[in-house]
């Protein structure tokens, strides 16, 4: 399985009509936030592959279609507009949700059984100026806890909690910076240590210096910065890990 991960930057290598010639065998796209929705639209229309996205702390013009906000709006118009736009972009919103993908399956190396791809996502960044889609570490942990029942169900049914955790922000002290805007979430460290996703895909940290570390292995989870674009390849045969 080959996954195109994108975030934070409208990459000219992706945003062009020849992109399928450059990346001819993409199976899925993950959008890790701070991207204009017309860019997501383009990716969906060109690749025609399953696409998942979350929101970051910028490019939030359509955030209210997916979350209730304090922005003033006629309630009936809001309800109708939100229902009409929920799947308008052809990409599935993964903010604070878990998903058992029916599009991709692995073969368990031990049992030979087929098992689906398990993914979950969390939008937003650490609160730094009370803007939209910003959360305290405590609030983010509460949002993560709402996903726990489905994660436990995954563990009981498939033998693991999660394969991919898609976020905008980083875990604390992994790829993050020390300015208030770009600090990571402590609760993300708790989440990956508790639920053992094989991969965590994030954005938020711009790689202006391409020598800056993009991939870190942490307690069995490969943490990947998707800035601009990154190709993730996952083998079709899955080796179950003891957890």
Task: Write up this protein.
The protein is an alpha/beta fold and 243 residues long. 23% of the residues lie in helices and 27% in strands. Strands 11-12-10-9-6-5-14 form a seven-stranded mixed β-sheet, with helices on one face. Strands 4-3-2-1-13 form a five-stranded mixed β-sheet, with helices on one face. A two-stranded parallel ribbon has the order 7-8. Strand 11 and strand 12 form a beta hairpin. Helix 4 runs parallel beside helix 6 (186-195). The protein is globular and about 50 Å long. 34% of the residues are buried.
Task: Considering the chains and any ligands shown, give keywords for the structure.
alpha/beta, five-stranded mixed sheet, 243 residues, seven-stranded mixed sheet
Summarize the structure.
The chain has helices spanning 19-22, 37-47, 75-85, 137-145, 148-158, 186-195; strands at 2-7, 28-31, 51-53, 92-93, 97-108, 114-122, 125-126, 134-135, 164-167, 199-202, 215-218, 221-225, 228-233, 237-238.
Secondary structure category? alpha/beta
Inertia-based shape: globular
The percent of residues in helical segments reads 10-25%
Number of DSSP strand runs: 14
Sheet with most strands: strand arrangement: 11-12-10-9-6-5-14
Order of helices and strands: EHEHEHEEEEEHHEHEEEEE
Biggest β-sheet, characterized? 7 strands, mixed
Task: Calculate the mean pLDDT score and round it.
Answer: 90
**Separation, N- and C-terminal Cα atoms:** 24 Å
- Number of helical segments with 4 or more residues: 6
Indicate the topology.
Elements lengths: L1 E6 L11 H4 L5 E4 L5 H11 L3 E3 L21 H11 L6 E2 L3 E12 L5 E9 L2 E2 L7 E2 L1 H9 L2 H11 L5 E4 L18 H10 L3 E4 L12 E4 L2 E5 L2 E6 L3 E2 L5
Parallel strand pairs: 1-2, 2-3, 3-4, 5-14, 6-9, 7-8, 9-10, 10-12
Antiparallel strand pairs: 1-13, 5-6, 11-12
Helix pairs in contact: 4-6
